[in-house]
Amino acid sequence: MEQKPIEMQSNSKHPTTSIPITFRFFSTLRNSAGTGEVTLTVQKGETLKNALKSVEVQYLKPNNTAVLNDTENQLEIGVICLINDVDVNLAGGLSKKLNNPCTITLISSLHGG
Q1: Sign of CA dihedral 60, 63, 66, 71
Q2: Number of helical (H) and strand (E) elements in the chain, helices listed first
Q3: Is 6-108 a domain of CATH 3.10.20.30?
Q4: What is the reported pTM?
């Protein structure tokens, strides 16, 4: 089932172009999000961290799940984040600016035994 993009609030006061960002959830994050994929519309130039915060608040926090550790300014332990199938650490980190439509994959490496 195709989902309609959700508009993300931007901190910017200047008009910019919106771009669609597709988030894919795997493992326990899929269960927490209640879906395997969502598309958010973000402002061109928004940081990866802000886009992750938005998807976290809308889809994961209601189920007590987090992907960001804000006190450490990093991903939570056990969360793997890929941008267009490239590890976020190789693609510019959480401060990477999102200037083009892309797919962000979130995988939890933590699971039951």
Answers
A1: positive
A2: 2, 10
A3: yes
A4: 0.83
- Cβ contact 36:30 at 8 Å: yes
Structure tokens at 12: 């910017």
CA distance 104 to 81: 7
CB atoms within 10 A of CB 96: 16
Hey, what are 20's tokens?
A: 């669609």
Query: CA-CA distance, 87 to 3, in Å (whole number)?
Result: 25
Any idea how long the chain is?
A: 113
Provide the residue-wise pLDDT of the chain in tens; the chain has 113 residues: 445 444 444 454 555 699 999 999 999 999 999 999 999 999 999 999 999 999 999 999 988 999 999 788 899 999 999 999 999 999 999 999 999 999 999 999 987 65
Other beta carbons within 10 Å of 59: 22
Q: CA 88 to CA 95: how far, in whole Å?
A: 10
